[in-house]
Design a protein that fits this description.
alpha/beta, CinA_C (chains A, B), six-stranded mixed β-sheet, homodimer, CinA (chains A, B), five-stranded mixed β-sheet, Alpha-Beta Plaits, about 425 residues, CinA-like protein (chains A, B), MoaB/Mog-like_dom_sf (chains A, B), Molybdenum Cofactor Biosythetic Enzyme, Chain A, elongated, Maf protein
Chain lengths: ~425, ~425
Amino acid sequence: MKAEIISVGTELLLGHTINTDAAHVARELSALGVDLLHAHVVGDNAGRLEDALREALTRSDLVITTGGLGPTDDDLTKETVARVTGAPLEEHAASLEQLREYFGSRPMSANQRKQAFLPRGSVAFPNAVGTAPGCAVPAGDGKFVILLPGPPSELLPMLREHVTPFLQRYAHGAIASFMVHTFGIGEGAAELRIKDLTGGANPTAATYATEGEMFVRVTAKAADAAAAEALAAPLVEAVRERLGDVVYGVNVSSLESVVLPELIRRGQTLVTAESCTGGLLAKKITDQPGASAVFGTGLVTYANEAKMRLLGVPEDMLRAHGAVSPEVARCMAENARTRYNGDFGLGITGIAGPDGGTPGKPVGLVYIALSAADGVWLRVMRPQGRYLGRDWTRNRAAGHALDLLRRYLFGLPMNPD
Amino acid sequence: MKAEIISVGTELLLGHTINTDAAHVARELSALGVDLLHAHVVGDNAGRLEDALREALTRSDLVITTGGLGPTDDDLTKETVARVTGAPLEEHAASLEQLREYFGSRPMSANQRKQAFLPRGSVAFPNAVGTAPGCAVPAGDGKFVILLPGPPSELLPMLREHVTPFLQRYAHGAIASFMVHTFGIGEGAAELRIKDLTGGANPTAATYATEGEMFVRVTAKAADAAAAEALAAPLVEAVRERLGDVVYGVNVSSLESVVLPELIRRGQTLVTAESCTGGLLAKKITDQPGASAVFGTGLVTYANEAKMRLLGVPEDMLRAHGAVSPEVARCMAENARTRYNGDFGLGITGIAGPDGGTPGKPVGLVYIALSAADGVWLRVMRPQGRYLGRDWTRNRAAGHALDLLRRYLFGLPMNPD
């Protein structure tokens, strides 16, 4: 089964909005084993949308549109699909009922009511969050156009709860895709280690580098999900083995999503002390539901005064070594742990930039320390090559802190091999 | 001048990567007044990329590709563009020199060296961050194909420093685009207020809703940037006036980017005390370079024990009202300010979910307080409609805290009108 995505919205072509919808839809199609060979963006323009729909229907079995279903005048997707498929818009009773529920006692305008009109013969997909329902419109020869709303918070639940079950009846075969996530290795080095594993056609392995992270994707295609997974599994294992302990997980979302469950399993607690990351590490930790079981206290000691008062960093030490120093990072981690009764303390101090650097302590220099009952471990991030920005630097520093803790918790060497 | 974007990468069609590159390129083209009418994604497949390139060149003057320039075997963009434009790949001396500098004393593989090959007659764009240079390849009839690397950290500086100056010579006319950002109004309500302003063809105004935020985009097209801005300005003012004090800025990146400079200008300091947002508010504040002038201490008091110890929240109060209560939010804000010598204190306590709700205190209930020398102000976020998730809830709560401070700093009513 071949599919294409057509994302509708002038804001996408002006670069005001990033097309996350297409990625969400692509991921679901991939999991269903549907081949997505094209994705397009068109503006809020009925003529170009019509051209794109007609062309897509000549070569694909399934066309999924995102956006243009709302109440405003430039929401044109439904009208255009109705024209292309020859199915006139009709009021859909259940969708109107849901709109009425949504508005309750508030008045509903004619434009709002327009959202309850669907092309004749559609299968409606209720909107769990917003007002515009989605739908699947038959387009002849067993083909379908599926219309989804633009806001990701509306699209995502509709996709999972309604569209995927709808498509499962049509999809043949399945793709299994595994992401082997790493921290502490570059793409070039990773490629060298797995070079001879990347030549196959099914399963395949390929390296990808994103902002501050490198991962390997292993993909296999087979008759069903279980067969595809079984086909991919040995290659996933081989990649893991080659890359070694820089691999922090397969199909996990982040370092913190690996570290927090392990802390919770062990019933051990963590205290954070952050200077240049300014709360980012605590934020990442508390992104994880259930973090409260192991994380009670986080300190953002951006100023020296806060480092002294909340963490007891000695004024002498700050004067002698400066706030950005291995001594202060260690002291922050150690005192965070001991003063606030944690099993672990993490301390981060550095210069995230773009300003504040000196020849001796350049922008990008960050010290990261982990304190546990049996020792303190230090990482140094030194500026390498060109400065990649404040966000990158802070994110990377928080990653190093989580990686130190991961290595301790899983009994790995404290530095990448 | 008409342009299209072709993004190359199987990871985009599998949904593993979100296409931020296309948004970055689209924004630059829009600023240059270049009409972007189409954007596509194709996988790492030379045949489909070739088809897409040939089709794009029949109807557009400029085709910009992103991705597929790296050293690995599935990086095929350069080879395919060379075939389509008939310009063979040749070693480019300056690019090879830059590669040599990048690698320094480390060995450079043949695959790495491949990156210094460019189609004959290209204008090279050096890569300030990574290894693969970009280039502009003449495609006949005054048309060009511009090749850019996939990693956004490489693409962005290349775009700004090299591609925009290159294109400025070819672009005719300019688009001015203004984003009027709001906090505290829904899309429906905003549309009603500006309904009669949204009908024009040039300038145009349109509402957009993204995750937890609503903005109005005003766009005008004219012969040059100054004329386009002058054309848009009266409509921007009219939109601002209609929407009132929910507007926090025009062409600003975030609430914090408005609040922090004003705090810095006033020389006033802020202390944060966060429970459910777990550091997110401090992180947003310290996203702003220069935050250290006004932000020295942030407290993540996730546990009751931390609320008592660091903020002096009375145990009796926690027992009587619970940690998620107006009393505790006020006390957190007030004591953050007084104990840590700030001019302002912000306190947040709530239930971000997905677990931890009770009938009396459901998931999504958050109390947010601002303390200043002359009073304490409270906001309540009550769950409305369906639960939109932990990230949404935390982000919205931090937004409310920043909006309270914004209203105080700019002398506005403390709640939206």
